[in-house]
TrEMBL record:
<protein>
    <recommendedName>
        <fullName>F-box domain-containing protein</fullName>
    </recommendedName>
</protein>
<dbReference type="InterPro" id="IPR038883">
    <property type="entry name" value="AN11006-like"/>
</dbReference>
Length: 198
């Protein structure tokens, strides 16, 4: 009886091995500096069949960092890795992480955000600003047209408008053919509102 090769293993076992070698925790999960687990993309060079199977795991299961201007154009797995320019590989990516600054003019439009992120498996938006409660949620409004995302997380500097963040997360997870009522601003969402101690 000839010895078993890697390709003789059932597909479920091969997929589990690919996951162990190629998937790293999302960048949004806190960890010590430099403690990212290693990734082993060398397995893609074993043969064409392994390459095709593993490529789907590497690009389809990891969370990639969206480009601040080009969004899903030129994503990267981590800041230390090169950007990805292949449209074939970018088309496999379905999970994104983006940093949005509230106190800076964005370099993308609402239409570009909608085209880039609608129907993704996952979208994580980390919100930043230079001063605590120094800006409102105007920049986040660019994401109001995004629809059909399976999992959305918006976090960071959002303490001034939690109701809007909750509404936006729900909007982004609704399907494209569903009408959504516009956000109704609440008094507690207005920047500069004095704290009443409650």
């Amino acid at each position: 009886m000839p010895p078993l090769t890697f390709l003789d293993l059932p597909g479920e076992i091969r997929n589990h091995i690919y996951q162990l070698l190629l998937i790293i925790p999302p960048i949004s999960i806190p960890r010590r500096l430099g403690s990212d687990p290693h990734i082993y993309p060398q397995i893609l060079s074993v043969c064409r069949k392994v390459h095709d199977e593993a490529e789907q795991i590497l690009y389809g299961s990891n969370v990639f960092i969206a480009h601040p201007n080009l969004l899903t154009g030129l994503p990267r797995l981590r800041w230390k890795y090169d950007t990805i320019s292949s449209s074939k590989l970018i088309s496999i990516i379905k999970k994104y992480y983006i940093i949005v600054r509230l106190d800076c003019d964005p370099n993308f439009s609402a239409k570009k955000a909608e085209e880039a992120f609608s129907e993704m498996d996952e979208l994580t938006i980390r919100v930043e600003q230079s001063a605590f409660r120094g800006s409102d949620y105007k920049v986040l409004r660019l994401f109001e047209g995004v629809r059909g995302v399976k999992k959305v997380r918006i976090y960071g500097s959002v303490t001034g408008f939690p109701a809007y963040v909750e509404w936006l997360q729900g909007v982004m997870m609704t399907s494209e053919n569903v009408d959504v009522a516009p956000f109704q601003s609440e008094k507690s969402n207005i920047i500069g509102e004095p704290w009443d101690g409650g």
